[in-house]
Amino acid sequence: QLLKSSSNTRTVAPIGLPVPTLQIVAEDGSTTRHQYDPGRPTILNIWSSTCAPCLVEITEWSAHRQQLMDHAAVLTLSTDHLTEGGTGENTRAALKQAGSVFTNYRISVQSLKSLDFLQRSVLDRRLPLPVPSTFLVSPGGELIAFYKGPVSARQLLEDLKLADQDRVPDARRNAAIPFPGRWIGMAVAGQPNRVA
Question: Which of 14, 62, 87, 156 has the fewest CB within 10 Å, making it most exposed?
Fold first, then answer.
């Protein structure tokens, strides 16, 4: 379930959408490419220390840290350095207040734009990516689901089951709809390079 907010969304992605490789910004300003763990799913959380719902979300996740970390790599990606007056001190203080033990990086502008483009392309909407936003990534680097607004650890743990590649092909499609039903056709894997 999503944490309490009026604008929270959960979107289960179609099969086959790759998540872009992220550029992570170090304290000295240098960038490195983040490599997804091929053996386990990854939870990417975009947040800011000035965002109260972000801190509530990270605090709630921290209370369930062992369960989350047993099933996925959890990365929090701060946007503090992208705003005027945002400092590493603010980020560290907020993470300490939230009790976070998760790996935290600073996300590059280009990576933030890439994730924003990804979520806009799935929804065909022109609404910018808010904070907090969370992306659930399969071990192969494929988008499973994304969440706009705070998401509970319980919902993440439930959706992590969709990363199991041995599940029936329609499992993700069934998870994307609000009520049970019967499909007329088989699920088709997404192919980003397919032409109509």
Answer: 87
Q: 44 and 73 in contact (C-beta within 8 Å)?
A: no
Q: pTM of this prediction? A: 0.89
**For residues 133 and 8, is the Cβ–Cβ distance under 8 A?**
no
Q: What distances in angstroms separate CA 135 from CA 46, 76, 83, 117, one per listed residue?
A: 8, 11, 22, 13
- pLDDT per residue as tens digits for the range 171-196: 888 888 888 888 888 776 656 565 44
Q: At residue 44, what is the residue type?
A: L
Cβ count within 10 A of residue 54: 25
Q: How many CA atoms lie within 13 A of 16 on its CB side?
A: 10
61-95 pLDDT per residue, tens: 999 999 999 999 999 999 999 988 788 899 999 99
